[in-house]
């Protein structure tokens, strides 16, 4: 049964790396419980298995990272959901099983991206093949990259980005005019990094306007394959398409990233970040003051050495 499931993943064009990871995680589960893929499993069995990974017995390896446990649970969800749907098993033991929550590092990973994760994302955007017919790979890459940079380096909300017009960009003075919540207008300075990314996109966009009528007629900075405006839902779907199995990406995650990075770059000047992000209440900005796990690790390492 497991081999049938693996073949179904291959038909879905899952990456070889993902398939190997799913297979290994499922086999670990089967081996730990001393069962075969087609044998009956209950949610209680799964919960005991999770507890064993969190609190291993003496003589066993140390407790696994929460991200590793959640990755294994995700593999089991996929497997048992497939088995039930294809009538291989009548019961899905994963229906009641939730991911493990952490008050520290894993909560942070849900909210924002580390610098390493952001760099990895840019590499995925560059290398991800285009699956839809008629889509220009270079056009999609340049557009998606420009959107990711704007979300991250300007902290725009997804609707603010969707509605952003060419006339809202002042490339000479390096600033962006943003119409935010409650129709409040704010002006965002462009960093040199963001300016260069937008400049490159606008040059490419001008070339595409010569080839596509809906681009030439569009007043918006970003357009879709057939529409002069890239909708909120379209942006969300695009961002989600670059997610990893263990971490779903959302447009708002980049706004969180902007706030977190800005606080770090400005020595926790919360008022500056509040104004740049367009937060009405400073308490909204204050939640980003919480130190990340890596910040805490750096602090511990910085202690005097003797």
UniProtKB/TrEMBL annotation:
The keyword DNA-binding applies. InterPro entries: CB (IPR044068), DNA_brk_join_enz (IPR011010), Integrase-like_cat_sf (IPR013762), Integrase_catalytic (IPR002104), Integrase_recombinase_N (IPR010998), Integrase_SAM-like_N (IPR004107), Tyrosine_recombinase_XerCD (IPR050090). Residues 108-301 form the Tyr recombinase domain. It comes from the Bacteria. Belongs to the 'phage' integrase family. PANTHER family: INTEGRASE_RECOMBINASE PROTEIN MJ0367-RELATED, PHAGE INTEGRASE-RELATED. This is Tyrosine-type recombinase/integrase.
